[in-house]
């Protein structure tokens, strides 16, 4: 069972031995909304790399079914995090990711870069906008979780620590980030998808510059997206920092906010892990139906 203040448990756990529990508490309790938003914006950093965006564009999923592509990615990454890397559901999700990756020629450096965005962007977001920043202890555990995930995904030469990921991604962006039409294609489809979570389509026009104000200028340029007005570039981050002050006055979350338990229009009756993703054709029945966690799944997510 969770204590009345599950976030308080983090400091008593070991960043080397208990990194899965710490990462789970950070994501489902301490910073649930913030980490989800940070990982959404982390996607844009990957789209600014032509070697990544071109592959994503070739699958056709962003043009044909952007919501499914987003849901599948989020669910496949959340199953191991919420249930455990070596749980039945975690292993099934990782196996499904590996199955899909195995049908494409993906450079190991691109895999490291994407993994690095999952490590770095939530930490950076919380530094800027969170109720508080991640502590060094939490940063080590967060990094260790994604190192362990990367190992299970067959990624080689994974950086040993947070500084290593930061150096690798900074070098990759200096050397390989540049504009390509596929960058803009994938970024625009994702931008409109994210706006659709909050706004009717008629408001996408004024909504786009608000989201773009949260991205740095080199990133916008590499995706071929316009720079928002100066007022928004100043005002949107300022509003997010004001939100931080409000959050500090609110009570802490006591119940887990589980991504895998969320109702989704694309999966109104739940989902099968083996049917997530785009390629190859999935094998139905390989894992119990999801959508809301099973009793066993909920228990492991609440450890």
Automatic annotation (TrEMBL):
<protein>
    <recommendedName>
        <fullName>ER-bound oxygenase mpaB/mpaB'/Rubber oxygenase catalytic domain-containing protein</fullName>
    </recommendedName>
</protein>
<dbReference type="InterPro" id="IPR018713">
    <property type="entry name" value="MPAB/Lcp_cat_dom"/>
</dbReference>
<dbReference type="Pfam" id="PF09995">
    <property type="entry name" value="MPAB_Lcp_cat"/>
</dbReference>
<dbReference type="InterPro" id="IPR046366">
    <property type="entry name" value="MPAB"/>
</dbReference>
<dbReference type="GO" id="GO:0016491">
    <property type="term" value="F:oxidoreductase activity"/>
</dbReference>
<feature type="domain" description="ER-bound oxygenase mpaB/mpaB'/Rubber oxygenase catalytic">
    <location>
        <begin position="48"/>
        <end position="242"/>
    </location>
</feature>
């Amino acid at each position: 069972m969770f204590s009345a203040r599950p976030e308080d448990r983090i400091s008593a756990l070991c960043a080397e031995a208990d990194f899965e529990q710490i990462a789970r508490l950070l994501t489902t309790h301490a910073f649930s909304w913030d980490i989800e938003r940070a990982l959404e914006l982390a996607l844009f950093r990957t789209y600014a790399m032509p070697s990544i965006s071109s592959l994503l564009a070739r699958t056709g999923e962003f043009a044909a079914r952007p919501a499914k592509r987003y849901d599948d990615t989020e669910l496949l990454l959340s199953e191991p995090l919420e249930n455990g890397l070596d749980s039945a559901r975690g292993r099934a999700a990782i196996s499904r990711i590996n199955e899909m990756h195995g049908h494409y020629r993906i450079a190991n450096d691109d895999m490291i870069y994407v993994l690095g965005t999952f490590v770095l962007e939530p930490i950076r977001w919380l530094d800027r906008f969170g109720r508080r920043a991640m502590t060094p202890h939490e940063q080590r555990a967060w990094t260790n979780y994604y190192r362990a995930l990367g190992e299970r995904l067959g990624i080689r030469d994974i950086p040993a620590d947070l500084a290593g990921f930061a150096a690798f991604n900074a070098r990759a962006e200096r050397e390989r980030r540049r504009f390509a039409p596929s960058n803009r294609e994938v970024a625009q489809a994702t931008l409109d998808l994210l706006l659709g979570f909050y706004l009717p389509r008629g408001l996408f026009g004024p909504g786009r510059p608000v989201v773009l104000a949260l991205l740095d200028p080199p990133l916008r340029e590499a995706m071929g997206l316009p720079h928002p007005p100066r007022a928004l570039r100043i005002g949107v981050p300022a509003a997010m920092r004001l939100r931080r002050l409000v959050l500090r006055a609110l009570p802490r979350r006591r119940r887990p906010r589980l991504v895998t338990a969320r109702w989704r229009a694309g999966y109104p009756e739940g989902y099968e892990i083996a049917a997530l993703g785009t390629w190859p054709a999935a094998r139905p029945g390989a894992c119990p139906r999801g959508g809301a966690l099973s009793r066993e799944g909920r228990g492991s997510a609440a450890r």
